[in-house]
Amino acid sequence: MEFRDNKAIYLQIAEYVCEHILLEKWKVDEKVPSVRELAVELEVNPNTVMRTYDLLQNRNIINNKRGVGFFVSDEALANVKSYRKTQFMDEELPVVFRNVYLLNIGFDELETRYNSFVKETFNP
Is residue 113 domain-shared with residue 71, that is, in the same domain? Predict the structure, then answer.
């Protein structure tokens, strides 16, 4: 995983976990990698992964079954969508809107590009 400098690593790892849940690579009630396993995989400190897991636990995306490990919660998909949507609307969309305005890009062109992206990426 390539980390960006403009965002805390634990938040980028949270995005990574959320994306795995959204893409259903990690399913409801399925065990997620242990703190150590994910730390080794991503080449980060286990404390960083633990901070990520604490955040996701507080958002009811994963839960800890004591002595067994962390699992994707029953409400994970809805909670991930809500968390990511809020994050996108507050942080990323204003940047997109600024560029759309500055570059004078019409909504019809955006719609065409969006539809092509969805078709190529999710329905190859």
Answer: no
Q: Do the domain assignments include residue 3?
A: no
Could you tell me which residues come within 8 angstroms of residue 123 by beta carbon, excluding any fewer than 6 positions away? Answer: none
* Domain co-membership, 36 together with 48: yes
| 34/24 Cα distance (integer angstroms) | 18
Handedness of CA 53, 57, 63, 65 (dihedral sign): positive
* Phi and psi torsions of 38, nearest 5°: -70, -35
Residue-by-residue pLDDT tens, the chain, 124 positions = 889 888 999 999 999 999 999 999 999 999 999 999 999 999 999 999 999 999 999 999 999 999 999 999 999 999 999 989 998 999 999 999 999 999 999 999 999 999 999 999 988 7
Task: Give the tokens for residue 111.
Answer: 């719609």
pTM of the model: 0.80
Strands 62-65 and 69-72 come out as antiparallel
